[in-house]
Give the backbone structure.
Amino acid sequence: MLRFLTAGESHGKALVVIVEGLPAGLKLEISDLEQELARRRLGYGRGPRMRLEKDEITIVSGLRHGETLGSPIAVEIANTEWPKWEKEMSPAPGSSSSKLTSPRPGHADLSGMLKYGFDDARNVLERASARETAARVCAGTLAKKYLGYFGVQVISHVVALGSATFSDDQLARNLPEPSDLKAIDESEVRCFIPEVAVQMIDEIKAASKAGDSLGGACQMIAYGVPVGVGSYVHWDRRLDGLISQALMSIQAIKAVSIGAGIEVSSRPGSRAHDPIHLDQGSDPSQRRGDFTQDESERTGRAGRPDLKLVVGEPPNSERSGGFIRDSNLAGGIEGGMSTGDPICATAWMKPLATLNRPVLSTVDLATKTETVSFKERTDVTAVPAMGVVGESMMALTLANEMARKFGGDSIGESLRNFDSYLKSIRQ
Ligand SMILES: Cc1cc2nc3c(=O)[nH]c(=O)nc-3n(C[C@H](O)[C@H](O)[C@H](O)COP(=O)(O)O)c2cc1C
């Protein structure tokens, strides 16, 4: 079983993450972690601090000569601004010179202060801050490394930012694949469709001018997960439930959908599922569910132009037991288990609650008077970065379930088990 625990405050000395349960023999370098953390800082609409910030990483344990040992892996991400914060955040006895007594709406501040009996919102916000997601991205990098040995890759892209969003049709025809990740990361808003990216940037510019903030959505896609990961037997091991919880745990995520989950709920059942066929190695274009009318006439096969969210290229049916689908409305999960098709999950983020032009009412708990929310460092939007965190949470969830299914103390042992499973599902 793969477990991880993060520790650390946003402006504390360091963030720490311990990941336990990965097998021995995974090749890992510190640059792998640096690259993923740099991706988390991406995105138009983030403040200057994000561009300047460099994460200083130390791998404290679990790695020797570039390979995992099978023991817990501990990683520290130092706060490069610690000298500035050392007095305010000191663990030694003392007190704050400037207590924050007016909790910001939309944050953990008020409930956290009441729950723990604090008179300083900083005691809450330092831990509730999404800076913690840097530690999750480190853990996610390890999970992605592990999944890579099985040919599993997790990517993400922004599908909505403010009111700029993909049409269903654009999404159906532009589902990115792992080879597209570079282009996505090169987009200032991590959006795969350039014309939608332009609209998103315009939205950010307008919100920035108004001192306001924006939410949006990212889709996470895992390619290569074999059929049967997850469980229909145990309620708490259903893969859709686990992925949803993992994504929902990201700060500011307010909804998660799997595949075309929201859209299919309003359809008749006859048009809401993914018909199964034997893979007879036919022309891949004939297996796709996003036929236009012309294409279906040309191929002579009944087209399903109504089906959205199909995958770009049909997946390798080796991982789905030799069966293929017309579409992937289910987002690669049926009965709480992977089907072998790409796993698609979308996470919806609320607009950031700290505004550069503070207008949200609150109450000063020290004076019991009404005031407006104070300003802590904030961005216009963090949706592009959220996708990188979403990838990490999805990778950690899948790695845990893959580790449960294929076991192994060394990656060699895990891969032997995996290969034998792939053979068994083709019999
Ligand atoms: C990557 C990332 C970056 C964030 N950056 C900010 C920020 O700059 N300002 C802000 O007000 N909220 C930011 N948030 C959101 C807050 O952490 C979040 O609104 C807060 O924790 C309350 O959300 P909750 O009610 O879902 O816990 C960010 C979230 C993520 C995932």
Observations:
- The domain at 100-259+330-425 is CATH 3.60.150.10 (Chorismate synthase, AroC fold).
